[in-house]
């Protein structure tokens, strides 16, 4: 199997989906001849033509609204928002239309669209280019929120998102676009949505993360192991709807749960997982559910961003403390 | 003064104009030669029938709301010619993207009166209607359906289908970026879409002059690179003619058009509004003299296309149809509560299936 970067896997999945289904249309700013600012759509316009890979005017609300109209007409639009910091004009379309078209017409019209955007800090980008606000999207009923963390999951989950009959927001980890490499076979096989993946088996503590923060989370497993702590690492992958059973069964085994996310703590998706454990997993818990997250600050610009993001050291320290709790 | 002279010497590089269309004067007399379809008495009578049906239906809907049997409702009083005239120029396979005050267009396209009541009575099933299945439901967030219309039209163009998207909104919506972004995109891609602004001169309590400094709304199309036309929106012949021209052009690949239909909302904004708080009875009274139904009736009577007996029979027919629809609406039992989950996703995820069971009072499996 060829080794490739995460952004190359995204590109491969888009090409595969466009080849398999003539209804798949890719649209966004600079996605055409430029191949996207991260090259996620490189080569697609040349291969599939400018009608199916179209550069839109610079208007994010428009991109999401076009997707709703196209999807209601039976196309499979895949919109790209250049950075998550620019997704907010799309919220009206996501909340008021994409997520509820099926419900408000009682199934007469549907909205099988994907809105892709890179999320997260760590690439020394300008202001407004580093947000991770997945929790606000995960609050929207009718939507799916999917966050790959590796080339393999980017390929399989993006194919699944495009084939899904409902709207999906697909958040790609900016700092892993080129840093994450892995073997991906272009076999057209999707990975399941609404499903968490156990990346590493363990018995002492469950560490749950998603998206870019899985880099530090997985990196924490070896130093913990050196201390005699066996960590089970779970990639949540789909935040909405999230795989409660995977979380509960892992915590039933380990008795401890650490949640790691790059987004700000208050109202972050970690709170949802902690609430599920409080409601349905309390008897399993040997220690308090704990979060390592971004702080409740505006994400700092390049000079300080490394202090904001959860580090391996913070994760190891928190996991150690949990395992020492009695 | 030197700079003024220099400015006078600068060449003009572009000029734009906005045309105005009107055929029937408020008294039903003719201002200019009529379009070809005006010789089709059956069509004109149909336009008249639907406008009157809409007016009588609105009256009944308000009565239902006032007696606690319907939710908030937006009346079309005074602007019936716009929704009916536009819809009359569409084909079944075209796609309508209406705002919440475009009942007339839905009725023309086959949506049942009881389905409209069901929607305004708080039941999503009203949007699963008998009109064309590809038509969009009422759009409540103002102007936000305009990008959908561009997306729909893009799909037509991509698939080379001779179909047109028709997007209707009010004067207030033209202040929103959604509408401009959609029009701009439609212009770039020469899409088969017609944007219709029903300019009833009031966005709830905000008059047009506080909405825009533009002389017309039609000129907003110029910024998007296509033609905008202003029509007398209380003259159904003008609305129909403009719609026919625009829709035909769009279908033939000649790109988008914008129609500003100038009319007047004689009613409150909705049943929750009291327009006397912000406008004078004199202003409203003056506009009653221009309203579309009396205008078309005068014309039809003058041409012997319509009689007093026809009028009486039509009113009786409409009322009978409305009463029957109201009965069916009131007899429609609410859905079971747990059905609120049934169209959330194509397949309800297990996490929410548990909530559905909880609401249904079933034991968790």
Secondary structure: elements and pairs:
The complex is a heterodimer of chains A (326) and B (365).
Chain A: E1 3-5, H1 6-20, E2 24-28, H2 44-48, E3 53-55, H3 60-72, E4 76-80, H4 91-98, H5 101-104, E5 114-119, H6 134-138, E6 144-146, H7 151-163, E7 168-173, E8 181-183, E9 197-200, E10 205-209, H8 214-219, H9 221-226, E11 231-235, E12 238-240, H10 244-254, E13 257-264, H11 269-280, E14 290-294, H12 305-308, H13 312-324
Parallel strand pairs in A: 2-3, 2-4, 4-5, 5-7, 6-7, 10-11, 10-13, 13-14
Antiparallel strand pairs in A: 1-8, 6-12, 9-11
Helix pairs in contact in A: 1-7, 3-4, 10-11
Chain B: H1 2-9, E1 19-21, H2 41-66, H3 80-88, E2 95-97, H4 103-108, H5 113-120, H6 146-159, E3 165-170, H7 177-188, E4 193-199, E5 202-203, E6 206-207, H8 208-211, H9 220-223, E7 227-232, H10 236-251, E8 257-262, H11 281-288, H12 292-302, H13 308-330, H14 350-360
Parallel strand pairs in B: 1-7, 2-3, 3-4, 4-8, 7-8
Antiparallel strand pairs in B: 5-6
């Amino acid at each position: 199997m060829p080794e490739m970067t995460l952004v190359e896997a995204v590109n491969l999945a888009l090409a595969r989906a466009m080849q398999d289904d003539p209804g798949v249309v890719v649209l966004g700013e600079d996605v055409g001849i430029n191949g996207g600012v991260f090259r996620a759509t490189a080569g697609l316009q040349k291969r599939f033509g400018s009608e199916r890979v179209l550069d839109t005017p610079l208007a994010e609300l428009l991109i999401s609204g076009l997707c709703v109209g196209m999807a209601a007409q039976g196309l499979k639009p895949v919109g790209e928002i250049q950075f998550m910091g620019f997704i907010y004009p799309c919220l009206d379309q996501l909340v008021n239309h994409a997520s509820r078209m099926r419900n408000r017409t009682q199934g007469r019209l549907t909205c099988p669209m994907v809105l892709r955007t890179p999320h997260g800090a760590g690439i020394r980008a300008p202001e407004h280019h580093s947000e991770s606000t997945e929790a606000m999207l995960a609050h929207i009923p009718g939507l799916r929120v999917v966050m790959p963390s590796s080339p393999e999951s980017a390929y399989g989950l993006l194919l699944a998102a495009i084939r899904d009959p409902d709207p999906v927001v697909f958040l790609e980890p900016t700092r892993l676009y080129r840093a994450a490499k892995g073997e991906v076979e272009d076999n057209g096989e999707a990975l399941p949505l609404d499903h968490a993946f156990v990346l590493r088996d363990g018995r002492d503590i469950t560490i749950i993360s998603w998206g870019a923060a899985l880099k530090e989370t997985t990196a924490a497993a070896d130093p913990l192991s050196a201390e005699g702590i066996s960590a089970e690492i779970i990639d949540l992958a789909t935040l909405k709807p999230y795989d409660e059973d995977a979380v509960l069964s892992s915590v039933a085994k380990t008795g401890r749960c650490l949640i790691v996310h790059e987004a700000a703590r208050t109202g972050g998706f970690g709170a949802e997982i902690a609430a599920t454990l409080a409601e349905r997993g309390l008897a399993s818990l040997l220690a308090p559910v704990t979060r390592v997250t971004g702080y409740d600050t505006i994400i700092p610009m390049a000079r300080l961003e490394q202090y904001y993001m959860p580090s391996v050291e913070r994760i190891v320290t928190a996991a150690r403390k949990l395992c020492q709790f009695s | 003064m030197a700079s003024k002279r220099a400015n006078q010497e600068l060449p003009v590089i572009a000029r734009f104009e906005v045309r105005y269309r009107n055929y029937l004067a408020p008294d039903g007399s003719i201002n200019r030669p009529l379009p070809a379809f005006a010789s089709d008495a059956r069509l004109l009578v149909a336009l008249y029938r639907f406008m009157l049906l809409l007016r009588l239906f609105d009256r009944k809907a308000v009565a239902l709301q006032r007696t606690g049997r319907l939710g908030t409702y937006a009346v079309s009083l005074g602007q019936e010619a716009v929704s009916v005239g536009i819809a009359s120029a569409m084909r079944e396979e075209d796609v309508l993207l209406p705002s919440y005050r475009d009942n007339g267009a839905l009725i023309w396209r086959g949506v049942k009166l009881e389905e409209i009541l069901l929607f305004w009575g708080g039941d999503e099933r009203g949007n699963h209607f008998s009109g064309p299945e590809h038509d969009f439901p009422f759009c409540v967030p103002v102007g936000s359906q305009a990008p959908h219309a561009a997306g729909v039209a893009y799909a037509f163009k991509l698939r080379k289908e001779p179909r047109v998207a028709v997007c209707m909104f009010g004067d207030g919506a033209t202040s929103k970026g959604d509408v401009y972004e959609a029009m701009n995109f439609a212009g770039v891609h020469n899409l088969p879409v017609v944007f219709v602004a029903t300019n009833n001169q009031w966005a709830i309590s905000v008059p047009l002059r506080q909405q825009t400094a533009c002389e017309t709304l039609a000129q907003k199309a110029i910024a998007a690179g296509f033609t905008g036309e202003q029509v007398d929106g209380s003259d159904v012949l003008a609305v129909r003619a403009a719609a026919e021209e625009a829709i035909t052009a769009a279908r033939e690949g000649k790109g988008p058009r914008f129609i500003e239909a100038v009319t007047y909302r004689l009613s409150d904004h909705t049943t929750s509004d009291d327009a006397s708080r912000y406008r004078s009875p004199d202003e409203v009274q003056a506009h009653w003299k221009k309203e579309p139904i009396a205008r078309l009736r005068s014309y039809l009577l003058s041409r012997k296309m319509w009689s007093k007996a026809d009028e009486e029979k039509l009113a009786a027919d409409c009322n009978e149809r409305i009463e029957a629809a109201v009965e069916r609406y009131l007899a429609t039992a609410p859905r079971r509560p747990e059905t609120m989950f049934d169209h959330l996703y194509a397949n309800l995820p297990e996490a929410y299936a548990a909530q559905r069971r909880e609401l249904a009072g079933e034991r968790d499996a």
